[in-house]
Fold this sequence. Notes:
Distance between the termini: 17 Å
Number of strands: 2
Strand content: 5-15%
Strand order of the largest sheet: 1-2
Helix content: 40-55%
Order of helices and strands: EEHH
Structural class: alpha+beta
Shape: globular
Number of helices: 2
Radius of gyration: 14 Å
Amino acid sequence: MVLIRKNAIMCxxxxxxxxxxxxxxxxxxxxxxxxxxxxxxxHSYSKVVNELLxxxx
Length: 57
């Protein structure tokens, strides 16, 4: 669900449990580490997974 509020978009999220195979998990964590180093800021695992899913879909 997406709520639009005065020039800002708020995305509602929900908790979902999925099984991720080890090789995919390693790639996600490597991408996360590169992003943290590049931008010098925190990026949660969930945030990175959502970003990668948005790019893929």
